[in-house]
Amino acid sequence: MICAHWSQALDRLAARHLKRELRLVERHGSVIVRDGRTLVNLASNDYLGLASDQRLIAAASAALERYGVGAGASRLLAGNFSIHEELEAALAEFKRAEAALVFSSGYATNVGILMALATPRDHLYLDELVHASIHDGARLSGARVERFRHADANDLERRLRENASRGARIVVTDGVFSMDGDLAPLPDLIAVCERHDALLVVDDAHGTGVVGPAGRGTAAHFGVENRVPVQMGTLSKALGGQGGFVAGSRQLIQFLIQRARSFIYSTGIAPVLAAAALEALRIAEGEEWRRETIKRQRERLASALAAKGYEVRGELEAPMLLVMMGEAEAALELARALETAGAYAPAIRPPTVPHGTSRIRLAPIATHTAEQIEAVIAAFPEKTR
Ligand code: PMP
What we know:
GO biological process, one term: biotin biosynthetic process
CATH superfamily of the largest domain: Type I PLP-dependent aspartate aminotransferase-like (Major domain)
CATH class of the largest domain: Alpha Beta
Subunit structure: Homodimer.
Cofactor: pyridoxal 5'-phosphate
Keywords: Acyltransferase, Biotin biosynthesis, Pyridoxal phosphate, Transferase
Bound molecules: 4'-deoxy-4'-aminopyridoxal-5'-phosphate
Distance between the termini: 46 Å
Protein name: 8-amino-7-ketopelargonate synthase
Number of strands: 17
C-alpha cells in the first residue's frame, strides 16, 4: 500500500519537472567534473574557494593525527577537545560576541536554537523566506508561528503590535537570503524588535565570511553586531568545511548547552572539521581579495546577463545572483543548455522557491578566473522575450 503511494508521488513529481536527482560530481576547486566533462562550478556555497585550500587540508590533517577521526561522544560527555574551544573563542571574537557554541551542522544549529529558546507559550515571527531548518526548528519548539512579509519591518511591527499574548516573542530572519540574493533590513528589524521587546535571531549562513568588514557578516555590514542577540552561522559555506555555530552572550551559550537538544544528544563536531574551520576563519578575515573578486565577478555576471535579456535578481553585497525563469521546465532547460556549454548551475525549483518562480542560482567562487566567468556568460543563450 504505502509503496504504491511512493511510486505515485515520484511519478507525479517527475511529470511536473519537480523530481530531484542526485548527481555524481568530482570537485576540483572552482570546477567540477561530471560525466568526464570539466564544468565551471557555480552551484556551490564555497564562496571563498576554501574547501580545497591546501592550508585547510594541512590543518585538518594535523588534527586528524592528533585527535583521531570522530569526537567519539557528545561534547557534554567525552567529546569536548581543546580544538572545539579554540574554534568557539575565535568565532566569538569574529562575531564580536562574548561566546559561541559549535554544532555538527547549520541545520542542527537552527533546530537546536529554536527548540531551546521558544516554548509552546511563546510566539515566533519568521520572515516568510527563511531557510527550511528554521521552519523545522520552529515546528519542533511547539511555539505559535507567524510569517511576516519578506524583509518587511512594517509588517512585522503590525503583527507584534496586534499580538497581546504574554509569552516571549522571537523574530527570526536570514541575514542573506540565498535563493533571492538580498540582505535582511537588519537596522529596521532591530528597531522594531527593540520597541516590542522581541528577541532577534539572525541566520547568517550565507553572510559569514563573505559580507561585511573582514567577512564578519550581515550584522557587521550594517554596523549592528552588538544589537543582534543571537547570531547563527555555518562552517559549511564560505568557511569551506562543515558544521554550524551560534554566537551571543555568555548566558545565551550556557543556556543552549543545557537546552539545545541537537547539541546535547548528538556527537560533537569532528575535531578535523573544527581545525579546518579555525584555519578558514583566519584566512577569511585576512584575505580581502577573495571578497573583492566575488563582488567583481558577480557584477560582471549580472550586467552581462541583463544585457542578454535575462531578469537578474540579487544585491551587490550578496555573493550570489539569481536568473529568474518562471516555470520549472524553463529553468531545467536552461540548466541543461548551460551544462552542455560547460557551466554547472542546476535549476532551483519548488518547493525550495514558490511555484512559477523557478530560477538558476549562480554563485561565483573567489578562485574562478575572469576567463571562466566569461565562459559562463557565453554559455547563456540570448534570451528572446
Ligand atoms: N541556514 C541557511 C540559510 C542555509 O542556507 C543552510 C544550508 N542550505 C542552513 C542554514 C543549514 O546549514 P548546513 O548546510 O551547515 O546544515
